[in-house]
Design brief:
Blueprint: H1 3-30, H2 37-55, H3 58-66, H4 72-90, H5 93-116, H6 123-141, H7 146-151, H8 160-182, H9 196-209, E1 219-221, E2 227-230, E3 233-238, H10 245-264, H11 280-294, H12 298-312, H13 320-327, H14 341-360, H15 368-380, H16 406-425, H17 429-433, H18 439-448, H19 458-465, H20 474-488
Parallel strand pairs: 1-3
Antiparallel strand pairs: 2-3
Helix pairs in contact: 1-2, 1-3, 2-5, 5-6, 8-14, 8-20, 9-10, 10-11, 11-16, 12-13, 14-15, 14-16, 16-20
């Protein structure tokens, strides 16, 4: 075997073990008994030790020196393995294991604190997480900017300066659009009890409608919806609320976007670095374009209205147009994942600024709740009423995902670019959406983006899908203004 073949065989086993670790994470958030958390933390730490040893194996350096890539995909494999190898060498094994153990345990502590509305019960653990993540970030930065080093784990090539500039361009037009739309009366809230079993039946139908392959996946319930896995085993979760079926239905469509990206990657890349999404920003572009530009479109809402009437009977919404306006209404709220398209990014920008301050040391963990509440009141015009609607609503910081939040807004920007390109290529797409068939769009996304996996860098992935046009915030803002200005009339 050649050096390239030896390297790829080693990498395949590493990827397989990483998939096992991911499955443990899925289990922890769905069906694991609460009392198993301490043991699971030990298991995660042990597996992380094995993975770290494999990722820093000295043979990888030798293979990389001697490997000859057979084609373009091979060159991309070597690029990603080199990046992973260099990263792993910078982080001491004991630190990697300590982080895996702590963040596994921290997740359960956060969940209990959230349930009890008790921030004080979570802050000591969060201090430990922040301290270890700063240590890891400093090791990765090697004298450079620590937060920028953290960003590379989620959005390679991004920097806090470039993201700050993009977000600064988003904020004024988003706030102006929000104020314009909120000046008009919004549709009434739904006033109906939606059977949660029927919600799950409909949500599984929606998953299949958007192309999710249930023979290689499953839909479960979790506190915080997520997608997990790659290749031949890609699982999603959703959540139900008797008074808010859209939470379930659109969380499902969102996670299906993530899952279809993973399921749609070329099988030639299975269990290799190219066999998963290239970045979290690109990943989020898929979930957001499925959920919003397709799932919340007027055409698809007309079809979904009929499906909900079939499932629940008369639920108090008179017609398709009223249903479309209800699905897309702007409303005051605290929860990022439930926010409308116009205000969603304002939630993300809040977290981006706070976590940068945390990592730099400009903000202490003990002051985080007050900083969150002050910023929220300034951005949204009303105060946080309880911790689960504020600092405790997201799982991300408990599991050490610093640098992650920015990718949510970046994904929205990418989705805006992709939607403009897709609509230009598919002028009759709405006719298909109106009969509940989004396959023209999902197939376009698969061909233009999903099947390529990690072949290109993130921005190049979007530019390739958009016929060479570099990504920018303009298409997203234009789409939002056009859609919601019409809805406000």
């Amino acid at each position: 075997m050649s050096a390239y073949d030896d390297l790829m065989a080693h990498q395949r086993e590493t990827e397989a073990l990483g998939a096992v670790m991911g499955r443990l994470g899925w289990d922890q958030e769905t069906v694991m008994p609460r009392g198993a958390a301490p043991q699971r933390a030990e298991e995660m730490a042990a597996l992380e030790g094995v993975l770290h040893a494999r990722r820093t194996d000295a043979r990888i350096g030798e293979w990389l020196c001697n490997a000859q890539a057979p084609d373009e995909a091979g060159k991309a494999q070597l690029r990603l393995i080199t990046k992973s190898y260099e990263r792993a060498q910078k982080v001491p094994a004991d630190l990697a294991q300590a982080l895996a153990k702590l963040t596994s345990a921290s997740q359960g502590i956060w969940a209990q604190a959230r349930e009890d509305e008790d921030i004080a019960a979570f802050l000591p653990t969060l201090k430990e997480v922040v301290a270890l993540k700063r240590e890891e970030g400093a090791a990765l930065a090697a004298g450079g900017d620590v937060y920028d080093a953290m960003l590379q784990d989620y959005e390679p090539g991004a920097s806090s300066d470039s993201l700050s500039a993009m977000f600064a361009a988003l904020r004024p037009r988003l706030t102006a659009l929000r104020d314009q739309v909120m000046a008009h009366e919004q549709p009434a809230d739904l006033d109906f009890d939606f059977d949660e079993g029927k919600q799950m039946k409909l949500t599984r139908k929606l998953a299949k409608t958007f192309g999710y392959d249930m023979s290689h996946g499953r839909v479960d319930k979790a506190v915080h919806p997520f997608s997990s896995g790659s290749g031949q085993d890609v699982r999603i979760t959703t959540r139900t609320s008797a008074r808010d079926p859209f939470n379930c239905l659109y969380s499902t469509i969102h996670e299906v976007g993530h899952a279809c990206y993973e399921q749609g990657i070329s099988k030639d890349y299975l269990l290799t670095p190219l066999g998963s999404g290239v970045s979290m920003g690109v990943h989020e572009s898929q979930s957001r374009i499925y959920e919003n530009q397709m799932g919340r479109s007027r055409a698809f809402c007309g079809w979904l209205y009929g499906q909900m009437r079939d499932a629940f009977g008369d639920f108090g919404v008179a017609d398709e147009d009223t249903f479309y306006r209800t699905v897309n209404k702007l409303r005051s709220g605290f929860i990022r994942t439930e926010a409308d398209e116009v205000q969603y990014n304002l939630h993300v920008l809040l977290r981006f600024d706070l976590e940068r301050a945390l990592i730099s040391g400009d903000l202490a963990v003990d002051d985080l709740e007050a900083a969150w509440n002050d910023r929220f009141a300034a951005d949204f015009g009303y105060g946080v009423d309880k911790p689960s609607n504020g600092l405790l609503q997201d799982v991300h910081w408990s599991v050490g995902l610093f640098g992650y939040f920015a990718t949510y807004s970046l994904g929205n920007v990418y989705a805006g670019c992709l939607n403009a390109a897709m609509r230009a290529d598919l002028p009759d797409f709405d006719a298909s959406l109106a009969i509940g068939d989004p396959s023209l769009g999902t197939e376009w996304l698969n061909e233009a983006l999903q099947r390529h996996g990690g072949l290109r860098e993130p921005r190049a992935t979007i530019a390739h899908a958009c016929s060479g046009t570099e990504p920018s915030e303009g298409p997203l803002l234009d789409y939002l203004e056009a859609k919601f200005t019409r809805l406000a009339v």
